[in-house]
Amino acid sequence: MKRRLIISAVLAGVLILLCCAGGTAAALLGGLNGDPNDPRLNLAACGAGTTINLDRLPTLSELSPAEMRNAAMIVQEGQRMAIPPRAWVIAMGTALQESNLHNLANSNVPRSLGIPHEGVGRDHDSVGLFQQRPLPPDGAGGWGTVEELMTPATSAHKFYDKLRGIPGWERMRLTEAAQRVQVSAFPEAYQKWEPLAAAIVDSLTGGAARAPGAANPAALGCAQGGVITAGGWTTPVSDQVGSRFGPRDGSFHYGVDLSSPYRTPIRAAAAGIVITAECNAHSAGGSMSCDVDGGIWVSGCGWYVEIKHADNVATRYCHMIQRPAVRVGQLVSAGEVIGLSGSSGNSSGPHLHFEVHLGGDMSNRGAVDPVPYMAAKGAPLKDVR
């Protein structure tokens, strides 16, 4: 079963570190499995009023019909419990990691083998979509009966019930929230499933992963600037796009400039690990300080940060006014402040230069236009055309 989510990039181009340098654009067209009717392309939909019909489910190349049905029952139970859509994405990512969305029996639990199942595991005595452990004979310490845990809706209910008892779960990275529920031996393993989990939720609900993550599921609408979506994305700042991705003054602009005043808090667009946090400013005379304003004669991003996200996506944030608030190797959550806007490096005034890279390629070959990319994630940049 193919498990790699195909990135939804409507337009792509090349990327370069410098805000104002030139180069040659190599345009790439991206899509979602080549299907123009893929529900993930309906950017105007954000899950309002969607009722899941188990007899008429959407299809995704990443899932078999049986897996999609199990996914639908996970979301359906979240809707029934009126738990916010961020929980649906967390539950989906958890089930993808634990069972690949298969309702598993267990060879160590003979009773489970007589219950309808989609595979047989051997992990201790764990069963079902979430690999929950049944109650022992004394009735203490387990999740429920074998029959309950191998009923998808019931096992999902038990997962959600424990999740909503964790203070602040809505603001946690997916892997942190899942780990608090599951107590896995591999606590970071869940995070890689967030993009696919969000895509599954979007396809089942008409875009609920693009809705505010903590919203009432009975009244979903698209997330506004600065709000973290159920899929785990947000805008780095709420300011307007002042300069777009593409040709500019005889060169090519490989990100977008967001017109942020000095010292505007810059937030991580999604959860990830910081891979760069440093000063990059040079002139003909050599290296320059990033603690002062730069200029058009300066090259480099100034103080800047790069964050690697799930699915080999990365974001870059340039021209901060002072040393970033994060360090290399630090795990950050969506919406976490990583620095303050400024005008260091190759800059003619205060703003945030924001870039998106695909495929783990931090060079100019890995770029996408941030405007359609962020719109597809439910965190549209303020781009008035």
Description:
It contains 7 helices and 15 strands. By secondary structure, it is an alpha+beta fold. Strands 3, 6, 8, 9, 10, 11, 12, 14 and 15 form a 9-stranded antiparallel sheet that branches. The chain has a two-stranded parallel ribbon with strand order 1-2. It has a two-stranded antiparallel sheet with strand order 4-5. Strand 4 (246-248) and strand 5 form a beta hairpin.
Helix and strand layout, with pairings?
Blueprint (H helix, E strand, L loop, with lengths): L64 H16 L4 H15 L5 E2 L13 E2 L24 H4 L2 H12 L10 H9 L11 H12 L35 E3 L2 E3 L2 E3 L2 E3 L6 E3 L4 E12 L2 E2 L11 E10 L5 E7 L10 E2 L4 E4 L11 E6 L9 E2 L1 H7 L9
Parallel strand pairs: 1-2
Antiparallel strand pairs: 3-6, 4-5, 6-14, 7-13, 8-9, 8-10, 8-12, 10-11, 11-14, 14-15
Radius of gyration: 22 Å
Tally of separate helices: 7
Bin the strand percentage: 15-25%
Helix- and strand-based class? alpha+beta
Gap from first CA to last CA: 41 Å
In short:
The chain has 385 residues and is α+β, with helices and mostly antiparallel strands.
Key terms:
single chain, alpha+beta, 7 helices, elongated, disordered N terminus
